[in-house]
Amino acid sequence: QVQLVESGGGLVKPGGSLRLSCAASGFAFSDYYMSWIRQAPGKGPEWVAYISRTGMTIFYANSVKGRFTISRDSAKNSLDLQMHSLRVDDTALYYCARAAYGSGIIFDHWGQGTLVAVSS
Amino acid sequence: QSVLTQPPSASGTPGQRVTISCSGSRSNIGSNSVHWYQQLPGMAPKLLMSDDNERPSGVPDRFSGSKSGTSASLAISGLQSEDEADYYCSAWDDSLSGLVFGGGTKLTVL
């Protein structure tokens, strides 16, 4: 069955960096668009970024553009999110999500999330 | 302030029909499909409805979706206690070149 397992979250000071990873299994990873979506405590989900099957097409939310970089490694079936210049309002549970086949933005599978806390 | 507007709360009694609205603009709902997610407490969101009114496999037909102009709705008929959850709409926004979510509606089954 489809499994998405995030890792790499933690406590970081404002201005710091963190790299999140998502290990994918149970499906042909290279056939699907993937995204990172975050959810601040008590808030709704906020889409962060998506990457196409080949990695050639990438979109970012305006709130993270220039600070975050999404990437994928089809040989390792993994999705990464490199985060720089972290701010307090980046604090959230970060989900890795698979887009439904043929879609880039309909998320049919989500991981359980990894928590990022930005605080001094 | 979310780009897509949802009522913060909704409620109903078992067996009732409840509707949750999602209001947007020409650049999102007016131009693109709407997708809905259900989030149970402590869980990741789950896809409930895609492309305005398509139910993924396994979603009961008590759930239905519709769209008109720049607004969309999720209807739940025959309300059950296990439907108590947060519901979110989403759509691509052409002006932002990004995906936007609604602020969410907390459904309470009385």
What's the short version?
The complex is a heterodimer of chains A (120) and B (110). Chain A has 120 residues and is mainly beta.
Describe this structure in words.
The complex is a heterodimer of chains A (120) and B (110). With 120 residues, chain A is mainly β. Chain A has strands at 3-7, 10-12, 18-25, 34-39, 45-51, 58-60, 68-73, 78-83, 92-99, 107-110, 114-118. In chain A, strand 4 and strand 5 (45-51) form a beta hairpin. Chain A is globular and about 40 Å long. Chain A starts with a strand and ends with a strand. Chain B is mostly beta strands and 110 residues long. In chain B, 0% of the residues lie in helices and 45% in strands. Chain B starts with 8 loop residues before the first strand and ends with a strand. The mean pLDDT of chain B is 97. The interface between A and B is medium-sized, with 22 and 23 residues.
Secondary structure elements and pairings:
The complex is a heterodimer of chains A (120) and B (110).
Chain A: E1 3-7, E2 10-12, E3 18-25, E4 34-39, E5 45-51, E6 58-60, E7 68-73, E8 78-83, E9 92-99, E10 107-110, E11 114-118
Parallel strand pairs in A: 2-11
Antiparallel strand pairs in A: 1-3, 3-8, 4-5, 4-9, 5-6, 7-8, 9-10, 9-11
Chain B: E1 9-12, E2 18-23, E3 34-39, E4 46-49, E5 63-68, E6 71-76, E7 85-93, E8 98-101, E9 105-109
Parallel strand pairs in B: 1-9
Antiparallel strand pairs in B: 2-6, 3-4, 3-7, 5-6, 7-8, 7-9
